[in-house]
Write a structure and sequence with these properties.
The protein has eight helices and seven strands; from the N terminus they run E-H-E-H-E-H-E-H-E-H-H-E-H-H-E. The protein has 250 residues and is of the alpha/beta class. It has a seven-stranded parallel β-sheet with strand order 3-2-1-4-5-6-7, sandwiched between helices. The longest helix has 29 residues. The chain starts with 7 loop residues before the first strand and ends in a 6-residue tail after the last strand.
């Protein structure tokens, strides 16, 4: 039996490099998947991967920083999926800007992309989960929230927003535990996504030198860790922040 057989999952950032892999792995584990992302073409591509794995897909293009739009889009996904069992908050993105030069606009954008989006999507699914007295919420934070962003200088705003995700995860986990909803976070280090192909040999060596295992994260492994938290074995795991960083945060 697949670990997520007939579960109904919503993934934000489903068109991105990590989000698309999460959707595909969820489908392989038996879940029907709904995706939210601003990139309509990317959502369509992710949908093809989910359907190729034999599961149902529904996607909606939406600005995840727009609270009202996210509530409407998520309600549509829940209706088409017939409910929601799992939410993965994967949408986000960093910007390099040294703090002494940072504009208020950059700061606000990083908060919106990396923290507000988590609030918006979680707020949209939580009433359904509380009504069902069952649900799994998994937030993608970052090792930058734990280590201060040593892998990338100038990531202060990003690290602060992701630290907010960790705080939200822990506080919400306490708030909803008795209602059968678990809330956990993954804190990935550098991942072997297509964007890393642009690294120069010098940049790659500098990156690996800070990782004890000298390995970049594999997005499939990240997705499999999320499957564990979303599946039967994760029923009593809540408020946890799981580093997937090759030992960088030790």
């Amino acid at each position: 039996m697949a670990q997520l057989e007939s579960r109904r999952a919503i993934v934000t950032g489903a068109a991105g490099a990590l989000g698309a892999v999460i959707c595909e792995v969820f489908a392989r584990e038996g879940a029907n998947v709904g995706g939210l992302d601003l990139n309509a073409d990317g959502l369509a591509a992710t949908g093809e991967r989910v359907r190729a794995a034999g599961r149902e897909w529904t996607g909606t293009a939406v600005d995840l920083t727009d609270f009202d739009a996210v509530q409407d889009a998520t309600a549509g996904l829940i209706d088409r999926l017939g409910g929601v069992d799992v939410l993965v908050n994967c949408a986000g993105g960093g910007a390099v800007s040294f703090f002494h030069e940072m504009s208020p606009e950059t700061w606000r954008t990083q908060m919106a992309r990396n923290l507000d989006q988590v609030f918006n999507a979680t707020r949209a699914v939580l009433p359904s989960m509380l009504a069902a007295r069952s649900g799994r919420i998994i937030n993608i934070a970052s090792i930058a929230a734990v280590s201060g962003g040593r892998l990338v200088r100038g990531a202060t705003a990003y690290a602060a927003a992701k630290a907010g995700v960790i705080g939200l995860t822990k506080a919400l986990a306490i708030e909803v535990a008795e209602q059968g909803v678990t809330v956990n976070a993954i804190a990935p280090g550098a991942q072997a996504t297509p964007g890393r192909d642009k690294d120069t040999p010098e940049r790659r060596e500098a990156l690996l030198a800070q990782i004890p295992t000298r390995l970049l994260g594999n997005p499939e492994h990240l997705a499999e860790a999320i499957v564990f938290l979303a599946g039967p074995a994760g029923v009593n795991v809540t408020g946890v922040v799981l580093p997937l960083d090759g030992g960088h945060s030790i």
